[in-house]
Amino acid sequence: MASNKNNSDQFMTLMIVPHGRGQQSWSIRLPNWGIKSLIASAILVLVVFLGALAYSIQVTVRLANYPTLLKERKVQQAKIAAFTEETKQLNESLDEMHEREKELRNLLGLNSNISAPVPAIPSNLQSQWNKDLRKLDGQIAPIVLDLDKQYYALNHQSDMQLKSIKRLEKDVFNYRKRFSNTPSIWPVIGGYIYSGFGMRRHPILKRYEYHTGVDIPTFVGAPVKATAAGVVRFAGWLGGYGLAVYIDHGYGYATLYGHNSKLLAKSGDRVSKGMVISKAGSTGLSTAPHVHYEVRYWNKPIRPNNFLTLDLLTARARLW
Ligand SMILES: [Zn+2]
Asked: How close is the Cα of 235 to the center of ligand 1, in Å?
C-alpha cells in the first residue's frame, strides 16, 4: 500500500476534457521529472526567444540609425577637410611672414636665421580637447588631436611673427626716415678730397688753422647736392665761405656748402637728399673752384669723411 502510494506520487496526469458531446477525453500520464524538464525547457525557450527579440530590435534600431551615423561621419570628415585646408593656408601665410621678417632683418643688418619656437599647449586647453575628443569616434580622434595641435602652434606662431614684423617695420620706417636726414653722399662729383679736416696751413692766409670741413675740387657750375633731407636755414654770402648754403637735417646734424658761384636754394626751402642746391665756384677765400663741405653735429664741425658714402646698414652700425 505504502509502496503503491509512493509509486503514484511520482506521476502526474494531465487531462484534456472536451465540452462537446460524444467527444472523448484525452489524458497523459507523466512522471514528475518529465514535468520539471518540460517547465525548464519552456523557460529556456522563452529566454532564447526574448534574447533573439532584443537582438533583432537592437539591429533594427541600428539599421534605422545607420543613415544618420553615415551623415554624421560625412560631416566630421568634411569638418576635418576644412580644418586641414585652413591649417595649410595658415602655414602658407606663416611662410610669407617668415620671408618678410627675413627681408626686414636683412635691411637692418640683423641675424635673419630665425626660427619660431613650438609653443607649449596650456593645460586648460588640453583638457578641453580631451573632453571634445571623447565625443568623436576612435579613428577620427587622433587626426583631430593632431590638427588641433598644429592649428594651435601655427596660430601662436603667426601671432608672434606678426608682432615681430610690426616691430621691425616700425624700426625700418624710423631708420629710413633717420637715414634720409643723415648726410650720406658726396656733395659734388669729383670724388677726392684736396684738403682734409683738421689742423692745416691755410692756402691763402698762410697760417696754421683748424679746417672745419673738407675741400673737394670741382669745376665752376658743377651741381652741388644736399647730402641729406632737411631745411635750408641760410643761403647767401657768408664771409670767407663766399656764397654758402647751410642746411639743418634734424637729429643734431647740419651741413654747409661754401664757395658757390650760384645759389639755387633759398632760406626756408625743404630739400631732399640729392637735390641740387647750388652751382660750384670759387667765391670767398678760395684759390680754385672747389666745394668746402662741412658736417656739423649740434653745430660742432665733425669729420665729414665718415658721412660721404653711407647706406642704411653702415649708418646703423656706425652712427645709431
Ligand atoms: Zn675748406
From this structure: 17
From the CA of 45, how far away is ligand 1's center (Å)? 124
Ligand 1 centroid distance, CA of 209 (Å): 11
Same domain, 30 and 118: no
For ligand 1, the distance from its centroid to the CA atom of residue 117, given in whole angstroms, is 56
State whether 65 and 86 are in the same domain.
no
Count of structural domains within the chain: 3
What percent of the chain clears pLDDT 70, i.e. is strictly above it? 98
Tell me whether residue 59 is in a domain: yes
- Give me ligand 1 centre to Cα 153, in Å: 62
Tell me the CA–centroid distance for residue 292 and ligand 1, in Å.
4
**Taking 90 as the threshold, does the pLDDT of residue 38 lie above it?**
no
Cα 212 to ligand 1 centroid, rounded to whole Å? 7
Q: How far is the CA of 211 from the centre of ligand 1 (A)?
A: 6
Per residue, what are the HEC states of the chain? CHHHHHHHHCEEEEEECCCCCCCCCEEEEEEHHHHHHHHHHHHHHHHHHHHHHHHHHHHHHHHHHHHHHHHHHHHHHHHHHHHHHHHHHHHHHHHHHHHHHHHHHHHCCCCCCCCCCCCCCCHHHHHHHHHHHCCCCCCHHHHHHHHHHHHHHHHHHHHHHHHHHHHHHHHHHHHHHHHHCCCCCCCCCCCCCCECCEEEECCCCCCEEEECCEEEECCCCCEEECCCCEEEEEEEECHHHCEEEEEEEECCEEEEEEEEEEECCCCCCEECCCCEEEEEECCCCCCCCEEEEEEEECCEEECHHHHCCCCHHHHHHHCC
Enclosing domain of residue 57 = 2-75
Mean pLDDT, rounded, of the chain: 89
Q: Is the entire prediction scored with pTM above 0.85?
A: no
Question: pLDDT of 253-275, one tens digit each?
Answer: 999 999 999 999 999 999 999 99
